[in-house]
Amino acid sequence: MRRVVPLLFLSLLAARGGPALAGETACWFENGAVVAPAAVGEIAGDYVIDLSAPRTLLHLDVAQAAGHVETALTLPVRLAGQRVETAPIVVQSLDYRAVGFSTPIVGVIGADILDRYVVTLDFSPCRLRLERPGAAVDGQNGGLPVTMVGGVPTILAAASDGLKGVSGPFALDTASGGGVRARGAADGPRQKPAGILRGLSLDGVLRQDLPAVVAGDLPDGVVGGLGVQTLAGYRLRLDPQALRLWLTPAPATP
User: What's the mean pLDDT when you consider all of the chain?
Assistant: First the structure.
């Protein structure tokens, strides 16, 4: 996983000046996941940004190397110029999530941190912006209704493999390499291909022949996850407190 020390340094400096109304950072894709510089406590590095994970995670090996022996911590979190003073952190082995990455991941920033902000994610180029609740939405109205299920934001979608279909709340999975993620083994790598999905209906648009992955970590009540290959077609703006999601189609590349 590549290092972006200058960006992280600047974001940490911004966080020391008190709560910011808005902040942003460059992000990038590795192994199908959105990755950005962040810090949990004093452990700075590259973290997976995962709106479909209900909890923020710290890799067991990294935590132990920093002197933490407990598996449940309370630490500050710094990301994109914003700072959460105290946040619950779960320490566990993330070896299963590190499959396919060039270096072991430090941790995962989950929805329990991200849902404190209005989140804007541009995929090309990759930029992550966090704004305090109540931020203006640049004159945008409408948007898709969001339902919080098991601690993660979801939107309604429907999927079919050609023989049977399923519909319901789908999580915004910014850490899966496929177009759609289905529930599977809890320790299954998210980047492992699991065939082709015949169709996905999202916001009135039918997408066909999407690559799928199968892995666990979906809260009860969540049907599946919309992966990066689906979400990258949009500029994503999520307001978890207003329970609205705006998906603006990304400009077509020449």
Answer: 86
